[in-house]
Amino acid sequence: MGTEKPKFELFRQFSGKFALFWVILPNICAIAMWPVGGPSAAHGIFASGLLAILFCTVDRVWVRRVGLAICFALSTLLFIASSFNLELTKALSSLVYLSELNIGTSPEYVAAALLIVVALLAGLKFGAHVPRLALPGQKLMALAPIALLVNVDMVATAGTRGSYKSSAPADAPIDSAVLRNQISPKKIAARHLVVIMVESLGTPNNDYDRALYEKAWGNGRWSGRYDVSSGTTTYYGSTTNAELRELCAVWSDYQSYAFGKPDCLPWQFRKAGFDTTAIHSFSGSFFDRQTWYPKLGFERRIFEPELLAMGAAKCGGVFGGVCDTDIPHLIGDRLRQAGSKRQLVYWLTLNSHLPVAADESLHTQTCSTGDAQWDAKRPMLCRVYAIHQKLADAVAAEVMRPDFPDADILIVGDHMPPFFQRDMRTRYDDRHVPWIMLRRHHQTAAPRS
Predict the structure, then answer these.
(1) Residue extents of the structural domains in the chain
(2) What is the pTM of this model?
């Protein structure tokens, strides 16, 4: 009996207030997502929990409030970074672009922001007065809710954990649609090359979604004018990772890549005498593309202001920018006006960036795939397919025109749609994105297997 008392004494040093205000509330965003989906938040829970113990050894209320705000910021930022396959450094740097986003158009983002703000205010009011963790036993028992939360999170997020990956393993062989199709200045027989990277174009893994994908991007709609091949390529990370994957054949990101190398695709084509142009339907300051696009070898960069001046319309949504459906015709005009100069045109789309809002300018205020029950259950997914269908229709309307210049066209996804919801995320191949290669009928080059 004498040995039991110390054990119970240790349990009595557990602080429920510390567990609530310093462990649960700072991780409320991840916890709220457990029934729905989302990435593992284990690292954020553990890191913010250790900081919480440290700050709760201090008596001063203002220090505790600063510490609590830091715990909230750290856990939330790590959760967001994991959700969008961003490394922490990129997630931090992306905070400066928040003013460019229309967060209010997304009910999901508004609800998440309100939840975090309410939790933070409650923590600042009550958490700062939690009894100080002074004794070794108190600190030891403070680890219990942290460990419990980490383990519950691991179980709750097990189903989709493999689909969240911010970077490639060190030994992963490089893969890209450009490599699979052996694209280089010497192997392009057409006068021009157009590369279109489609935001959130993933590879469906079920019959219903696959039919929607085929309706938009299937080989049959292009075969009247082009030799069509298609396949998939491996992806890691976010959109900027995908851009370097295709344009420079590296698993890297713009923040860590050693620019200036002459082997990136735009440099290769530029040295071969091509004019090189990069187009993005959003601001050039977003992820600093206006700075590193020239380093890839793009002589001309066309972003939202220039596109609007050229006659493109403005579309709304969280990422409000130029309407993607207006860009194919502008590309066609550029090729038609090129004269004797061969062109490499690279275009990164925008409007299918998640979350896709119900927006009149995007024509997503209503959505139908032909199955009302399916549409009602998955409205966001329905809107993504609607955006991709309208984009594919706009591309096809331009490149199938009799006067569209002699060009090879590569269409490739950047990453699977980064849905939070588990049931929608699992509808996609979590390792590969699709590509479609269009070559004029007079060419016989085949993609590498």
Answers:
(1) 8-163, 177-440
(2) 0.88
Q: CATH assignment of 177-440?
A: 3.40.720.10
The pair of three-digit structure tokens given for residue 151, joined into one six-digit string: 């383990």
C-alpha of 207 from chain center: 24
321: nearest Cα among 301, 298, 347, 349: 349
Taking only the tens of pLDDT, the chain with its 449 residues reads 445 555 667 778 889 999 999 999 999 999 998 988 888 999 999 999 999 999 999 999 999 999 999 999 999 999 988 888 887 777 777 777 676 778 777 787 888 889 999 999 999 999 999 999 999 999 999 999 999 999 999 999 888 777 777 788 888 999 999 999 999 999 998 999 999 999 999 999 999 999 999 999 999 999 999 999 999 999 999 999 999 999 999 999 898 898 877 789 999 999 999 999 999 999 999 899 999 999 999 999 999 999 999 999 999 888 899 999 999 999 999 999 998 899 999 999 999 998 888 888 888 888 999 899 999 999 999 999 999 999 999 999 999 999 999 999 999 999 999 998 888 999 999 999 999 999 988 644 444 43
